Amino acid sequence: EIFQQTLTDYFTNK
Amino acid sequence: MLELRLVQGSLLKKVLEAIKELVTDANFDCSATGFSLQAMDSSHVALVALLLRSEGFEHYRCDRNLSMGMNLNNVSKMLRCAGNDDIITLKADDGSDTVTFMFESPNQDKIADFEMKLMDIDSEHLGIPEAEYHAIVKMPSAEFARICKDLSSIGDTVVISVTKEGVKFSTRGDIGNANIVCRQNTTVDKPEEATIIEMQEPVSLTFALRYMNSFTKATPLSNTVTISLSSELPVVVEYKVADMGYIRFYLAPKIED
Predict the structure, then answer these.
(1) Do B233 and A10 contact (CB within 8 A), yes or no?
(2) Across the strands, what pairs with B34?
(3) Chain B closest CA to A13's CA: distance in Å?
(4) Which of B11, B119, B124, B146 is the most buried (most CB within 10 A)?
(5) Among A1, A6, A14, whose Cβ lies nearest the Cβ of B45?
(6) Is 0.90 exceeded by the ipTM?
């Protein structure tokens, strides 16, 4: 199974 | 008071065409630095960051920081009314809920102004740290667009692998699989035709081709594209906007469980 990461998994909210 | 005059108005037209498929509504931020935008797609998988530096405008007046919410489809409709050679000026008064796009033909014989309603947009702003990337590939933007288009007729995802052999774009689907390898090539007539690979360490990441294809809408802006990869970060696909700024697309990878 291959999962799509989201940007919030990497970057933080300002 | 905001007044931004861009002699090469076609750049703004191309910028809108590059981002309107990915993002529906966005806040354009004006400050002393320049005209910028940061917006994510609705699923928070991809992000576009635009910067047009103030020095790139013939006239740049921004009395105080201003954030203007716009529907990008509507901006695109307005800008499509500008000729490719037109000078475009953006104007907004403090506290106004509209922005005016003024189009001047090169010989000043036609001047048009289009006023557009602004909108309130709650947007999340992500902090994107400066990062070291494992590999940076610079290649002709048309070549990258062709690869993304070709691979999307075979599969839904692309594996981008950088080794000392070159950069490999791979996909697989129901009908079969495909691999395209681009090697470093600096022995070309024009610098923009070169493929340059800077690799600190090998990297291999999987991405949704649908998003990559959407990023390639920026191809008319620049002859080259830069793809920055790191196993711990979203990929960055960057197109320069003349010598005044850039559009950067960030895309989160797909990861095997």
Answers:
(1) yes
(2) B53
(3) 4
(4) B11
(5) A6
(6) yes
